[in-house]
Amino acid sequence: MNQAILDRIRQERIIPVVRAPSPELAMRAAEAICAGGISVLEITMTVPGAIEVIRELARSAQMLIGAGTVLDPATARECVSAGAQFLVTPGLDLPTLKFANDAGILIMPGTLTPADVLTAWKKGAAVAKIFPCGNLGGPSYVQTLKAALPPIEMVPTGGVRLANAAEFIAAGALAVGVGGELVSTRALMSCDLASISAAAREFKSAVAA
């Protein structure tokens, strides 16, 4: 696990999750996020040509690029080869977790229950993605998990909004993963990149406060 990557995520506090219908729109979303002051983001494998998008974005020294919706070790290997600096999975896949640990890559395996979180930690994950967190109580659920499992860093995703982002941080989250409320599909499709940049600034201000 790369401590410098973890520290940068801790400093940023927000991980925008980019899902887009084309590589070009994913690149535009990344540019808008960066213009809004957030230098960490996740490109999901649901983006067409996601590996090449990661490869292109990883050339920028300004941005910390992660690969999301990684389902297996083979995909994880491709993402890392393309320049992904951290990996995110939707569920707890132990072979993918082992690959990341062996490669020294930060991984946030998808977890939901205390058993999931504990298993991920015992298998070497320094950070657990809590997904879909909004379905189980949001910030209060993270607070409960952190009370029971204080050594484990957590990144809630799913149900994170501008109105509750700061509550998740106050509850003990390392950072929050934010999808559609920050990277709006409507804004992307209409090329309204300014609104994505504005949303990035608003989220950054919210967690800072």
What does this structure look like?
The chain is α/β, with parallel strands linked by helices. Helix content is 46%, strand content 16%. It has 10 helices and 9 strands. The strands form 2 sheets. Strands 5-4-3-2-1-9 form a 6-stranded parallel beta sheet, with helices on both faces. It has a 3-stranded parallel beta sheet with strand order 6-7-8. The mean pLDDT is 96.
Question: Quick summary of this structure?
Answer:
The chain has 209 residues and is of the alpha/beta class.
Q: What key phrases describe this protein's structure?
A:
209 residues, alpha/beta, 46% helix
Given the helix and strand composition, which structural class is it? alpha/beta
Query: Which residues sit in consecutive blocks of at least 5 with pLDDT less than 50?
Result: none
Count of discrete alpha- or pi-helical segments spanning 4 or more residues = 10
Helix content: 40-55%
Beta-strand percentage range: 15-25%
In N-to-C order, the SSE pattern is HEHEHEHEHEEHEHEHEHH
Q: How many β strands by DSSP? A: 9
The value of Rg in angstroms is 16 Å
Return the average pLDDT rounded to an integer: 96
- N-to-C span: 29 Å
Sheet of most strands? 6 strands, parallel
Question: Which overall shape is indicated by the principal axes computed on the Cα atoms?
Answer: globular
Describe the strand arrangement of the main beta sheet, using strand numbers.
5-4-3-2-1-9
